[in-house]
Specification:
With 185 residues, the chain is mainly alpha-helical. The chain has 5 helices and 2 strands.
Length: 185
């Protein structure tokens, strides 16, 4: 249940059911993305989906900037700005996820065509990006849950891990995009 407090921010009650929802989403989202990526038959959504990798690059770059601004805001004890920026980062991440899934259910995978030192660099970045993006879903959802349920000490402990991982995933998303962008059809 969501309740409105006197600061006009929405809060969620800390109930076992709400905590369970966060845990289920933390598992369901990466599993659903993996399953959708594994679908061999692509949906014919149209050529407009060819622009989505570029949109994803912009979403990741913007999310990276917003995350850094959110970090600066909290270091300056500007809690309200921090909340707003982290909300924007969460929305950007959610839009990225929808765009990513839409692209991959409607287009064949793009093969990286680089060679030399770029090839292992690309695959190291890609592998670490994918691996950490799976785990960061849980961290981000829990961090937001703790913040919205006023479990600030738990939030602070968790974001010491969640923030750098989320930032790494966002930045490597941009780097992976820049490295593979020349090979999009």
């Amino acid at each position: 249940m969501i309740v409105k407090n006197n600061m006009a921010a929405y809060k969620i009650e800390n109930t076992p059911r709400n905590n369970q929802i966060v845990n289920i989403l933390s598992l369901a989202i990466p599993i659903a993305v993996a399953m959708l990526n594994a679908i061999q038959t692509k949906l014919a959504l149209g050529t407009w989906t060819k622009v989505l990798p570029h949109v994803n690059g912009v979403l990741n770059a913007t999310c990276s900037i917003v995350l850094i601004l959110g970090f600066i805001a909290i270091k300056n004890k500007n809690i309200e700005m921090h909340r707003r920026l982290m909300g924007v980062a969460f929305i950007l991440g959610s839009l990225f996820l929808v765009s990513y899934v839409t692209y991959h259910i409607s287009n064949e995978p793009t093969k990286f065509g680089g060679s030399g030192w770029l090839r292992p660099t690309y695959y190291i970045l890609l592998f670490s990006h994918i691996l950490l993006s799976i785990g960061v879903v849980n961290l981000v959802l829990k961090a937001i849950f703790y913040a919205l349920t006023d479990q600030i000490n738990s939030h602070k402990k968790l974001v010491k891990w969640a923030f750098p991982i989320w930032l790494y995933v966002s930045i490597t998303g941009v780097l992976v995009y820049l490295l593979i962008a020349p090979y999009y059809v």
